[in-house]
Amino acid sequence: MHATLLGILGLALLGALHAQDSVPVQSDFQQDKLVGKWYSIGLASNSNWFKEKKHLMKMCTTVISATVDGNLEVTSTYPKGDQCEKRNSLYTKTEQPGRFSYTSPRWGSKHDIRVVETNYEEYALVATQISKSTGSSTMVLLYSRTKELSPERLERFTQFSREQGLTDEEILILPRTGESSQRER
Question: What is the distance, to the nearest Å, from the Cα of residue 32 to the centroid of all Cα atoms in its chain?
């Protein structure tokens, strides 16, 4: 019985690791081209905080800059009520270009961040696997250099999010700041 349980747990862990490794990273990733200002156009997640806050979320701006040691400083500005809240994160580079790690000082969660695809001038699709003591979750972000993206890019975001196991209820096209309507996919 004990060996069977260990075997099942081992297979489950192997499956989770395989799923995580199956998330692609942009080939020939060029970090210097990713820096600059981006808008968060889409957000998809199966985390509890997303489910609880989804109806309040709006488009935010994110500025990505390179540090001297090759990591990424990511500063996001979110509308929160009638104010703006800034959040700074340091994405540490890994051996694989386009893949970064981050540990939340507030929650202790570990983030495996992958730039899945980008053309650097228009959009970037980023997938994050988040692990913490209470379990793991998946997050997909769609960034744009402008506040609007083509329907094809929005559809690619939705399709990729579904490929990561996210449902339509867990996929959100973020309304612009000041817009009251929510456009969901």
Answer: 19
Put residue 120 in one of left, alpha, beta given phi > 0 → left and psi -120 to 50 → alpha.
left
The one-letter amino acid at 101 = S
Q: Specify whether the CB–CB gap between 75 and 67 falls below 8 A.
A: no
Identified catalytic residue from 23, 43, 59, 60: 60
Domains of the chain: 24-173 (2.40.128.20)
Global pTM exceeds 0.85: no
In 3D space, the residue among 91, 102, 46, 38 whose CA is nearest the CA of residue 66 turns out to be 91
How many CB atoms sit inside 10 A of residue 166's CB? 20
Three-class secondary structure of residue 96 per DSSP: coil
Query: Is 84 known to be catalytic?
Result: no
The residue that leads in pLDDT, 18 or 124, is 124
Rounded-to-integer distance, Cα 185 and Cα 168, Å = 6
Q: 10 Å Cβ neighbour count for 126? A: 21
Instruction: Return the number of other C-beta atoms located less than 10 Å from residue 80's C-beta.
Output: 11
